[in-house]
Amino acid sequence: MVVLTRSLLPLTSLLVSSVTASPIGESFVKKIARQDGSFYAITGVNTGTVEPRLEIRELKQQPEAWNLFLLALQRFKAMDQSDKISFFQIAGIHGEPLIPWDGVQATGDASVGYCPHGSNLFGTWHKPYLAVFEQVLNLKAQEIAAEFPAGPTRDAYVNAASKLRLPFWDWALPRPSNEKILTPLLSDPTAEVTYPNGTTATIVNPLAGYTFHPLVPSDFGYPWSLWTHTARNPRTNTNPSLPDNIDGVESFLVGTYNGIRNTLYQILTQYQTFNQFSNTGSEQTEIGTLEGIHNIIHGSFGSGHMGYPAVAAFDPIFWLHHCNVDRIMNIFQAIYPDTFVTAHEQFGATYMNEPGDVWDAETPLAPFHSSTSGDFWTSNSARPIPVFGSTYPELVDNPSNDTIKERINALYAPAVTSLKKRQAGAEHKPRAYLAVIEAPFALDGTFSVDVFIGDITTDGANWPTDPNFVGAQTMLAKPGLTSNAVVKGSVVLTEALQKKYDAGSLKSLDVDAVVEYLKTQLHWRVEKVRLLPLLCSPMPVLTGICNRIGKSLLASRCPI
Known about the structure:
Structural class: alpha+beta
Oligomer: single chain
CATH architecture: Orthogonal Bundle
Distance between the termini: 54 Å
């Protein structure tokens, strides 16, 4: 039996890498834009109105919509896996089984999926990806609604189907201390539904996972070639019969919760360009990135499918997670409408590109067609928020910037945004403190850098529950992939420092005192979740981590 392990990696000097940029050019666009076949037009939901995607716990409060959602997802997942718009085929776009979708052949690295990570197109590529999933899901909901007996019940379900959109899971939502971040709606093994014939039933919760029907081992690399169903934080990679370690997922989410909220608030309230805000691979700043937060949530599922881009989309929770990522991106776009995707070289490969290619807002978001004739969605064409027939609660009715700011503050403003001297008569500018992490894009798979203030009192498996754990940055990659490209992320230290001051451990909030304190109390560890023995020798190392203490940022409530 091979037990999943988390290994510590040593730290060495920062590695600076360089790549040569080469534009994709018109030949690439022509090569993929017109291929033989009948193309699937991704339009989103066409029911005549633009409806908000709701947080899953809010959707649960609407009985007809919730029932339809569960039944539609169940039917969607049951589609023949050879169908182009089946759950299996759409999930497979993201990575394995590494086959063309909708006739779009590989023009890059055929050993990885279509999805760009660490790319200026990370956020916009997922817009039509979510749209095609939502489009098919809604079609299933409309089919089911029409099966209810004619009369008021059917009318209610038809109305609910017309408004049903893919819900999002807000992992940063304010919560009572006794409420789980991973809501049981997403993890309970069963769910209650009512079928159109009026019978009620307890079914396998369609949100809890996906069972392959069948599993074709050659579709996937090891160890996923062994798993007949998706897994969340499994205890081993050779015994699929063991239950998921959901408690371990929750522990990680709780441990990173404050750090995620702090970084989320920071990236929404401090101006960056769209490229800087959206991804870990282009023009990064110390403020943080949406993709960096997104990575932490993926990493919380350990060695399960969600932890690896090649197979993540087969777990239904992927779609609700990415719906929330899309929501945050759209909120950013509403606040800062004058910045968007600009040209940038790609340091990673996808099914459609090689490292060094330059992508911009007109690059085709392959394999997503906007028409049956083979036109592709681009970042520019997918830019309008309601283009796919959906929006988000914070953006309904095109609110003013002031209203959006109020909503951000109500949802995500941390208790402590800056440190100030409390001594009488002392003048002190607000300061926010960050640990800025620079690390390889890939290190033989997914890994995390965990940050602590104070002694580390737990073993690696329990670091997120350590009382001195502050936060983490996760880098997602498939096993065996190693990259010299350096990505940047940050962990906000401000709130943790305030707690240390309140407890008496930090004696002063003077900048010099904080800096000296962090020199001895700021620690980090590298957590590497492994599914299989290392594929390369010698073992790669984390090539750099940079801690910038005393970093001054203007901190106030929504300074935008």
